[in-house]
Every structure is written in structure tokens, then in C-alpha cells.
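Query form — protein Tellurite resistance protein

QUESTION: What is the three-dimensional structure of this chain?
INPUT:
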Amino acid sequence: MTTTLAPVKAPSWALPISLFSIPLGLAGLGGGWTAAAQLLDAPAWPASVAFGAATLIFAAFTLAYLARTVRPRNGGFHVDLRHPLLGPLTAYLPVIAILLTAHYAKALGAVAPWLIWLAVAGLALNAAALFAHWLKHPLDQNALHPGYFLPVTAGAFIAAIGFVSVDQHGAAVGVFGIGIFFWLLLGAVITSRLFFGSELPLPFKPVLSILLSPPGTASVAWFAITRGAVDDLQTALGGVTLFMLLVQLFFVRDYLRLPFSTQYWVFTFPIAVLGNIGVRYSAGLRFPGWQLAGWVSLTVSSALILAIVVASLRLGARSVTSRRTG
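ANSWER: The C-alpha cells for Tellurite resistance protein are given below.
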């Protein structure tokens, strides 16, 4: 039997887990500017601002989310974890923690490896709990969406980035392999659902941009593991990323039909990853004009994310004004 995927209202008992796409996108933007500072002699302050904003928002959101979670009547994390649509999004918490710890690893000193291992352990437990729940309570195929890549695919690649930041090369390669395994496994299932299941409702169209995240985060992770080398595997990952970007161009009309909302933040992390690998591929290949190409990639991705930031601030201002006048 085929069911229709219906839009899900944010639970009234907690901060919507989907809002964690905001600090994730900002951390991704910071990662792009970190690459530019290392490879294009870009100033360090944009990365510092992006990561600083991501850290503050992540801390505030986490406190608000967990404060509701600990109240028995409100449910929270454990309710989201078992939700067919929101379940994989619970991996936002450990994934963002890994990215932030990796950025501040030098400042954290000897504590950094412990924090990375702790965050990766949290991600592993989260992914294992999800995987066990899916095995015990089979999902309706139409509940599947590209967000399912987050815990065990994109999350694993981000864990590899975290391990490299604290000089844990073997662990980085190990979790990279886990990401590849689940990318192949889930990729077939999710693609089958998108091909043969019911059409995603228009409000859910932005999740299609997440199809860029597995090859994109794999590329960034492999750059970290190989210290910037463009080897055969990196070239293959670049080819997949480029193809998925071409696919995204055919969704632009659908995306533009959507009224602006916080759902647009789903776009920011894939966009940030594209800017990041644009800088890294340009620097790794060193073709004529590579610096210009790197700057163009970073500028376009930054401009798109900043446009979403500005639109979000305007949306928030209108919401505040309407409440006061109402």
C-alpha cells in the first residue's frame, strides 16, 4: 500500500529539531572560509564569525531542546528519534558538535581528542539506536527521504574530518569506510523511494538538496585524510558531486516556488560544502586561474548563504512585529 507523505508540524513541546540546520549551515560556511584562509590567503575573521555564530546558536538551541526533553510529559529527543521523518535529524547534535570541536581543536589542546571521541561515540549510539529501531519497526517506504543520509553517511564523513583534526588518522579512515558502506546501502534504497514512491510534497522539496551531502562531505573528508591531494578517489568523488549538482539545477524552479521559511536552511550546508570543495579542488589541481576559481566558488556559496541569513532575519522581524500588533 502506498501512503502519501504529509507535511509534519513542529511539535509544540520542543524546539523543532529541524532548526539545527541553522548552526550546521553556519559551521559549513566557516569550514569553507577556513579552507580559503589556508589555501587562498583569505582573512581568518569570516571563519571565526561563522563558527562563533554557529557555536552560540548551537548552544542555545541545544539547551532549549534538551530542557524540554528531560520533562517526561514533553517527550523530546526520544520521541523525535522514533519519528519516521524526524528520526535521522537527531544526528544534528553530535554532527555539529564534531564540526565545532574540530575547528577549535588547537585552542582546546589535549581536551580536543577526548571531545571528538565523545561526540563520535554519541553519533555512533544515535545511529545504532536509529538502525535498531528501523529493523524492529520497518518504515513505510514513503517516509524515507535524503535526510536519512545524515546519521550514518554524512555523519561518518564528518566524523572522519573530526578525527583528522586531532591526528587520529586510522580512526578517520575507519569511519570514512563506514560512510562509504552506508552511502552505497542507503543510496540505493532512498533513490528507489524517490523513483518509485509517491512524489515529495512541495514543502519537502528542499530535502532533495541533501543528495549533495554524501559526495560533498566524502570529498572534504578525503581531502582532510590525504592532506589536500587530488588522487583517483578524490577525482571520482568530484565527478559524483558534479553530477548531483547538475541534477539540482533541474530542481531550482521547484525550490523558487516555495515561500521563504526556516526550511531554506536545509540548503545551506550542501551549498557550504560546495564552496569548500571548490576551494580545495582548485588548490589541489593548480590549473591556470585556480585562485580565481576558488574565490568564485567560495563567493557564490557565501552569497547564497548570506541571502538566507538576511531573509531569515527579515522573517523574524516580521514575526515579532505581527505579534506586537496582533
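ADDITIONAL NOTE: Residues 17-320 form a domain with the Glycosyltransferase fold (CATH 1.50.10.150).
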